[in-house]
Fold each of these.
Amino acid sequence: MALADGRLPVLPLGADKRPLGNCPDCTDLACGGRPNMKVPGPCVCPWPCHGWAAATTNPSVLASRQWGLAWRRARAIGYHPGGANVTVVDLDNADAITWARATLPATTTVTTTRGEHWIYSGTVRSVNKVREGVDIKSLMSYARWLGPGTGTMADVPTVVHRLVEEKPAARPALRAVTVPVPAGGGRCPHRSPVYLERGIAMAEQRITAATSGVHATVYATFLAVLSAHGRCGCLTEAHMGRLFTAAQAKGESVRHCTDAWSNATKTLGM
C-alpha cells in the first residue's frame, strides 16, 4: 500500500516470481490465463487479473476481497515499470553488469538474486535478450520490487533506445470481431453522428493511452460505450471493431476482448 501510495503500480508475485491470479476464480490460473503474462489471460471476471495489466495504485483494488487470496499467497511484490514511468535494465550475470558499467550512464541500481537492475527515468518498449544476459523491462512488462536502490536516477540513455529499436516489435495478430452488437431500441436519441464519433474516438484514446491496468481499462471503456450507445441502435460492427483493434494493439487477446464485451452487456442487462 505504501508503494502504491507513492504511485508505483504493484501486483502480487508467487514463489516462482510470476504473477498470481488476483481473484479466487483465477487461482493457479484456473481461468486459462497465461503464466508468462505478456498478454493478459482470457478471464471472464471484470477485475484486472493477470500480469503487468493487473498492476495498480488503487487502494480499494489492492485491499479488496478479490485480491486477498493472491496477497496471502504472494512471496514477492511486482510492479509495472512503464506505469511508474521508469525503465529497468535487467542484468542477469556478471558479464552483463560489466557491459553496463562500461556502456551505460550511472543511475539507480538494485541488487537482484543473479545480478542487478539499473533503473532509468522514462519508458521504452520492453524487449528481452537485447544482448546476452540483458532484458529491458518497461511498457507492458513487470519487474520484482527489491527496494528503492542506490544512486541518482538518470534518463533512459540513447544506447537503450537503440537496443530496443534494433529488435523487431512482436505485435499480436489482429483478428476480426465475432460478437454481435446489441440490438437497437428505435431512433437514436443522440441525433448527431458527431456525438457518437467523438465518443468512439475518446474510447479508442482511453485504451491506447493506458500504461497500467489495461485489462480493467478495456472492460471499463466497453462498459462506458455500451452504457451511452448500446440501447439506442447507433452502434455498428465498425465501431465495435475499432474498439477491439485498439485493445488488441495494447496486447489484449481477442478472447479477452470478447469476454469483456460480454461482461459489459450482462452488467447493463442487455
Note: The CA atoms of residues 203 and 225 lie 7 Å apart.
Amino acid sequence: MSILPKKNDLGFFEIRLESIGGLGANLAGKMLAESGVLGHGLNGSNFSSYGSEKKGSPVKSFVRFCDPDVEIRDHSPIEQPHVVGVFHEALYKTVDVVSGLHSDGIILVNSTRNFDDIKNDLGLEYGTLAVVDALKIAVEEKTKVNTAMLGALFRVCEFLNPDEMRSVITKTFEKKYPQFVEPNIRTFDRGFNEVQFKTYEVPAGAKGKEFSRPLPKLGYLTQEIGGVMTAQANSIQKDLSGSRGGFLPEFAQDKCINCAACDTVCPDLCFVWEQGEDKKGRPQMFLQGIDYQYCKGCLKCVEACPTEALSDLREMIGYADDNSVKQKFPLLAGGVN
C-alpha cells in the first residue's frame, strides 16, 4: 500500500523548492530526498537548478517520491508540484513561484506577514498556504534557514516521519561539525512546531496554476536586424531586493560623519549623496540615505562604518507601502529622484 497521499499520472509526489543562493535550498532538497529514500523506503530523486553559483541568485531544488515498485525515469524539472517551498519571499517579484501548482496544492512561505497579504502577492486563488518565520528561528538558534524550512516541510508532508530527518541531520553534521547537530535539530523541531496553516476552499472543477517557462526577450528569431542592442547596459531598472537574505542596512543620519567608508565598500552604489556646505562654508557631500532598490543586503557597509551610523535591520517584505516606514526610510521605495 502506498504511503504517498497524492500522485501525478506517472506515480510521483513532487516537491519544488524556490530560493536564492546562500539559504541552503540545494542541501535541503538533498536531505529531504535522503530521508524519504533511506528512511521511508520510497524511490526518490533530487537535483537543483541554478545559474551562477553566488549568493542572491535564484535557485530551484526538485524532489520526486514514488512507491518502491515505480522506476523513476523522469529527470526533468518539476512543472506541476504538489508542494512548493518558498525560502525567500521577495522571489515573487522576479519568479513565478506558484507556477504549475495543483489547485489543492500546498505552498510554504518563509514570512512574518499574515496569510491574506501573502496570498494576494503570490496570486494564489485557492489551496493551502503554510507560513513559518524560518529566518527568526535560524537567527535565534544560530543556524540556517534551510533547517527550519525542512521542519515545516515535514509538517506539510505528513507521510514523512520527522525522526528520520533528525537522523539525517545528525549524520550530515556529526563527523565534521558535531557542535551543529543539536542547534540544527532544535531548528528543525521549531520549524515543525511553529508553522501555521490556512486553507482557501477549492471550488469544484478548479484548475491548478498554469506552468509558465520564462523566455528571453530577444532570441535568434526576435533579435533586431544586424544584432543592434536596443537596450544598452544599465542598472536603472534593476531591483536587487530579491537577492537579500533577510537583512538590510539601517541608516541613522544623526550618527553619520559623512566619511564615505560605506560608499567605498558598497558593490552596488546604493548610497545617495547631496552636495552642501560644512560649518565653514566649504562644499561637502552629505549622505542622505540608501536606495534599497539596488541594495542586495551584503552588509559590508555595516562592517565598514566607524560610528555605528549603519546597523543591520530585519527586512519585512511588503513594508515599502507603510507610511511610517516611508518617513523613516524615504528612499526605501527605490529610485533616486
Note: The two ends are 64 Å apart (CA to CA).
Amino acid sequence: MSLGNEPDDVDVLVLGAYGQVGRALIPRLLAAGHRVRATGRRRAPLDELADACTDEDQRRRLSLALLDIENPDRLRELAARSRVVVHCAGPFVIGGHHVAEAVAGVGTHYVDIASEQAHYRALGALDRLARGNGATMVPGAGLYPGLSGLLLLEMLADYPAASAASIVMVTGLPETPDSGIASLLTGALELAIGEPLREHVGGRMQATKPTATRTFTVPRFGETAAVRWPTLEIEALGDELGNVDLRTYAALGGAPAPTASEIALLRLLRPDRRGWAHRLLSRYARYLNARLYRAGLQRHWGSECIVQVNVTDPDGHHRRELVAEDMALGTCFLVSRLTERLLAGTRPPAGLAKPADLIAPGEVLARLDAEPSWRITATADRDRPTRGGAAR
C-alpha cells in the first residue's frame, strides 16, 4: 500500500479519512467488501490508517491519496475514479458546496454528515447539476441529523395525528479531549455567516435564534438542558412534516447556549472569511472543549450519544431513543448503509435527496436493531405498538 500507487478506480472515496468519523467508517466499508480510497492533507495519519488495517484482503482494497479538498482539480480527478464520495471533513458551511459541486460535476454520488442548514440550501442550488449528471447528493447522513430523521418519520407514521415533535441529541465525553472541537466550530461558524436558522412551525419555516434551552429527561444523563438549535433535518424533512411543528435541540458535552452578544461578535468578526479570526475562534473552541471535557469527567459521564425523538398527539406524549456507544460509531451506521445502497446497482434518485429517499425508515432501524455489535439500541414508549419491531 503506497501513496504513490493509486488504483485506477475505487468504490468509495473518503474525504477526511483520519478524522474521528473517517477512522471509524473506513474499517466498516472495508469489512463490507468495498474498495476504499482514504484521503487527507497529511501523509502520517494516512499511514496510521493503513497500519491499523491488519486483514490482508482489506489492505489490498485500501488505497491512500493526498488530497486538499480546496484543490478542485485534484478533487475532481479522484472523484471521477470513484463511485461514491463520502465527505467527513467539516465544517460544511465553509466550502462544503464546492466539494459537492466538484463531485456531482463528474457524475459521482455524494454523501456527507453535515448538520448545517445553510449547507443544505447551498446543495439545493446544485440539484439541477446533479440530476443532469445522474448523481445523487445525500447530505446530513449521520446519527443526528440522519438516523434521527428516519426515527421521526417512523414515529409520525405510527402517530398520524401528531401536532408537534422534537429531536434532541445528548452527548457525554468525546473520544479524546480534542474530539468535540469540530462541533463547537461548526456551530460558531454557522452563526457567523448570518444566515437564518429556521424551524418548521405552523406548517411553514420561520427563523429563530439558538439562544434558548429546554430541559429533557434523558437516560444516563438525567435532567439535561439542551440548546434549541435548528439542524439540516428540519430543512430536509420540511415537505413531509405537514402541520407538525418540529424543533431540534442539542446538548453536546454540556456546551452552553450562545448569548446574543456572542452571536453579534461572531457576525462582526466573520471567522468564515478572515483567517486570523478563524484561528482565534479555533483557540477558543479548543479551550472551551477542554473545560467541558474536564467537567464531564467530574460528572462521571460516559461516551454515549443519545438521540431522543418526542412526538405529541391527542393521546399524549410519545418518546423513542437511539443510544450509540459514541458519536463516531453512531454516525457511521447510516453512512455505510447509504453507501451500500448507492453501490447496489439499482438506479438511485438523482439530485438532492434525503436518507429516506434511498432507504425506508423501518428497514434501516430494523438493521440497526439487529446489529448488537454496534451497541446501538432503539427504545420506545409502550403506550402504542411500534411498526415492524424496528424500535423496541
Note: Confidence is low (pLDDT under 50) at residues 382-392.
